[in-house]
Amino acid sequence: MDTVNKLFPANDHEFCQIYVESRITDPRIVHLLNEISRMGCKLPTPFFRCAPCLLPGEETPMMTAGYVLGSFDRFNDIKKLNKPNSKPRATDGLEEATSSASESDYKLQHLLDKPGIIICEDVLHKYGSMNSENNLVHELIHAYDDCRAIMNWADCDQIACTEIRASALSGECRSMYEQLRGHYNVKGQLMNCVRRRATLSLKHSRYCQDQDCEEIVDRQFDKCFADLEPFISRP
Ligand SMILES: [Zn+2]
């Protein structure tokens, strides 16, 4: 990453780079990156990529950050299979390179030509500050799961599982964030939040949006909520 003037970032891109530099020392992020490497997945360079995500005239982003699926050794194979104008492949475990379930949208294909985790520099000010490092941990859980299991990202049960884990392990469902979202019911708060956010993410997936997402999340919930890897306890 280029050295940037930390006091006076000149633009969104520099601001985003400073943001990433300041967050990658978070112990949860360090642990996830180490575990991904330990499992033998080679991290692309740069792994965290600041990029504009808003399309012309668009004010509401489709995502604030996203993991580009198949970012490890399979990335080039997946790209080769997806020639321009071809239909997305969703078989053989080598589906198209696309963003993670919660953030997937065909309009964002221009962001997906390189592997790694995209941080949307043009919406970071608006959406990134409150929950920022949790966003990175969320995407890293998807990366970890992709490395661990060679995921089929057209399989809605697998997507539901990684979304449950990402919501449960990222810290985005801590009570302080839930209250800021207007959810004040403390009883069962963590599970309710994880269930709600995983379902929402699944509904945004192009492969799963026409299916009964609540039912899929329910089916996967207990097993995936209990799966804390690579942490020993819920961070
Ligand atoms: Zn997600």
Care to describe what's here?
The protein has 235 residues and is mostly helical. It has one domain. It contains nine helices and three strands. The protein has a three-stranded mixed beta sheet. Helix 2 packs parallel to helix 5. The chain is globular and about 45 Å long. The protein starts with 11 loop residues before the first helix and ends in a 9-residue tail after the last helix. It binds zinc ion.
Question: In total, how many beta strands?
Answer: 3
Helix content: 40-55%
Radius of gyration: 17 Å
Number of helices: 9
Number of domains: 1
Structure keywords:
about 45% helix, globular, three-stranded mixed beta sheet, about 240 residues, binds zinc ion
Briefly summarize what is shown:
With 235 residues, the chain is mainly α. The chain has 9 helices and 3 strands; from the N terminus they run H-H-E-E-H-E-H-H-H-H-H-H.
Fold blueprint:
Blueprint: H1 12-23, H2 27-38, E1 48-51, E2 65-68, H3 75-81, E3 116-120, H4 124-128, H5 132-149, H6 156-170, H7 175-180, H8 189-204, H9 213-226
Parallel strand pairs: 1-3
Antiparallel strand pairs: 2-3
The structure holds zinc ion (ZN).
Residues 100-102, 138, 142, 163, 166, 201 line the site of zinc ion.
